[in-house]
Amino acid sequence: MYGIAERRAFIGLMGSLVGSAWIALWIWGRSPYGRYLGHEQLGELGAGSLLLPITLYLAGWTLMTVAMMLPTALPLLEIFHRLTARRQDQWQLLALLVAGYLGVWIGFGIAAHGGDWLLHEIVERSSWLESRAWLIGAGTLLLAGGFQFSRLKYRCLEKCRAPLSFVTEYWHGRNERRNAFLLGINHGLFCVGCCWALMLLMFAVGVGNVAWMLLLGTVMAAEKNFSWGRTLSAPLGVALLGWGALIFFIHA
Questions:
Q1: In the list 6, 26, 56, 246, which could disulfide-bond 36, CB 3.0-4.6 Å?
Q2: Could you tell me the end-to-end alpha-carbon distance of the chain, in angstroms, rounded to an integer?
Q3: Spatial CB neighbours of 134, under 8 Å, sequence gap ≥ 6
Q4: Domain boundaries, the chain
Q5: CA-CA distance, 139 to 120, in Å (whole number)?
């Protein structure tokens, strides 16, 4: 049976994990290594040792993923925890699910940081782009705003907003550890599918800005987990398109 004690243990664990991530980000941002939470230094990576900076960038992105995206998956995680409540390995299965989910977001982070580094390289080699760096921020805002109205956005959002149906579709009770990990991967893919453009905004407003992280994380959690969340998508899209257009017209 899944009782009050089990639910409290689950909430306590998830709350501690997410809360610790936010605290770690806040402390890290005020440390001498705070620059590795942002992306401004990516263009300075040269021929020297890349192991340490790349490791720190990925560690920072992982913390941001835990802080911002894990709360958006809490309904699915709790349903899964309920279904596996009678199993002795329920916490191990939950850990595998979380690992699969975070693994997808870490993969997205690697791709996003790699693309951002490539963009820095292109800008540094083009005086025209270097003098118009605002185009990158405006373009990111317009891309994120336009994606809010796309079919892919709504299809992925619908999958994420039906956690019980998602679990029953992908959890078959056979090869439990493998299926728990694959369940996390599949949910992560749909989560990235509906939130990737909003996450790219971190590169426009500053990847280490805790206030922006908190705001975007709250918006994405509301979009996915509340019955009225879908009504946010269109107004948010209009606001982002307007913001991007304003930047463009101010500079152009």
A1: 56
A2: 63
A3: 247, 251
A4: 4-251
A5: 15
